[in-house]
C-alpha cells in the first residue's frame, strides 16, 4: 500500500501537473486498446483540471467519462455531477458520458442502471480522480453512512448512499462506485486543496481508520500507489 504526495505551489500548477498525467493515461489507453475511460470526481476543486484537459488533442470519440459518484437528481439539475462533466468537457468533441443515475434521478432505478452499465464495461479505468471532504469522505463514501459496508464490499461495484446527516448543501441520495471498482485503474489521483483538508488528510493517515475517514480505504489499499495532489 502507499501513496505519493505531490505538493504544488498553487492550484494552477496542480492543474497543469494533473492534466499532463491524465492526458498520458488516456493516450496510453487509446494506443493500447483503441479506447480509454476515466472516472472523475465532482465538486468545484477539479473543474479547472477538467476544463484544461478537455482542450487536449485526443481522439475524444473513443473516450468515456463516468462520474465516481452522483447525486440522485434530474440530470438537468445544477447538483448533477454528470451535468457538470458535460459542461466542462464540452470542447472535447465526441466524448462519451456515462451516467450512474437515470434522467429523473430516481435512486432505485439509478442503482439498477449503474450496476448494469458496470457489468457491461469490465475494463479497468485508465485513471480515476477523487476528491476528499473535510469529514474524510471520498466519492460518496461518507463516514457513519449506513451503507458504508456496501462501499467496502469487494464483490460490489456501485452502491446507493444516504449520508446521515445529509449534507445541507446537497441533501440527496447518491450512487457511488465502490472502493474496489475505483481501484481497478491504471492510476488513482486524490486531489485536495487548502490547509483544512491537508490537516484532515494528515489526521486520516495517522489514525488509519476507514470507518472514520473512508478515504483511507483507498490510501490503505494493497498494491496501489495513490497520487495525492495538494496545493494551498
From TrEMBL:
Pathway(s) the chain acts in: Carbohydrate degradation; pentose phosphate pathway; D-ribulose 5-phosphate from D-glucose 6-phosphate (oxidative stage): step 2/3
Residue ranges constituting the Glucosamine/galactosamine-6-phosphate isomerase domain according to the UniProt record: 10-219
Transmembrane segments: none
Top enzyme class: hydrolase
EC id: 3.1.1.31
GO molecular function terms attached to this record: 6-phosphogluconolactonase activity
Catalysed conversion reaction: 6-phospho-D-glucono-1,5-lactone + H2O = 6-phospho-D-gluconate + H(+)
UniProt keyword annotation of Nucleus present: no
Keyword Hydrolase: yes
Alphabetized UniProt keyword annotations: Hydrolase
InterPro entries in UniProt: 6-phosphogluconolactonase_DevB, 6PGL, Glc/Gal-6P_isomerase, NagB/RpiA_transferase-like
CDD domains attached to this UniProt entry: 6PGL
An individual GO BP term: pentose-phosphate shunt
Family membership: Belongs to the glucosamine/galactosamine-6-phosphate isomerase family. 6-phosphogluconolactonase subfamily.
Function: Hydrolysis of 6-phosphogluconolactone to 6-phosphogluconate.
Protein name, as recorded: 6-phosphogluconolactonase
Organism of origin: Novilysobacter ciconiae
Gene giving rise to this polypeptide: pgl
Amino acid at each position: 500500500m502507499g501513496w505519493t504526495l505531490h505538493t504544488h505551489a498553487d492550484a494552477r500548477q496542480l492543474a497543469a501537473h494533473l492534466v499532463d498525467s491524465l492526458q498520458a493515461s488516456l493516450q496510453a489507453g487509446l494506443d493500447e486498446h483503441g479506447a480509454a475511460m476515466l472516472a472523475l470526481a465532482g465538486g468545484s476543486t477539479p473543474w479547472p483540471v477538467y476544463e484544461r484537459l478537455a482542450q487536449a488533442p485526443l481522439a475524444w470519440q473513443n473516450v468515456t467519462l463516468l462520474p465516481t459518484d452522483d447525486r440522485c437528481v434530474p440530470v438537468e439539475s445544477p447538483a448533477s455531477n454528470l451535468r457538470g462533466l458535460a459542461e466542462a468537457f464540452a470542447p472535447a468533441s465526441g466524448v462519451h458520458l456515462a451516467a450512474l443515475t437515470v434522467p429523473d434521478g430516481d435512486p432505485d432505478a439509478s442503482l439498477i442502471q449503474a450496476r448494469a452499465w458496470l457489468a457491461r464495461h469490465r475494463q479497468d479505468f485508465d485513471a480515476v480522480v477523487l476528491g476528499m471532504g473535510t469529514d474524510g469522505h471520498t466519492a460518496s463514501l461518507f463516514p457513519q453512512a449506513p451503507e458504508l459496508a456496501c462501499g467496502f464490499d469487494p464483490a460490489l461495484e456501485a452502491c446507493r448512499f444516504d449520508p446521515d446527516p445529509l449534507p445541507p448543501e446537497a441533501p440527496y441520495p447518491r450512487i457511488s462506485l465502490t472502493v474496489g471498482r475505483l481501484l481497478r485503474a491504471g492510476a488513482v489521483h486524490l486531489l485536495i486543496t487548502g490547509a483544512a483538508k491537508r490537516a484532515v488528510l494528515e489526521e486520516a493517515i495517522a489514525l488509519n481508520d476507514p470507518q472514520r475517514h473512508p478515504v483511507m480505504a483507498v490510501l490503505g489499499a494493497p498494491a496501489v500507489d495513490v497520487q495525492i495532489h495538494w496545493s494551498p
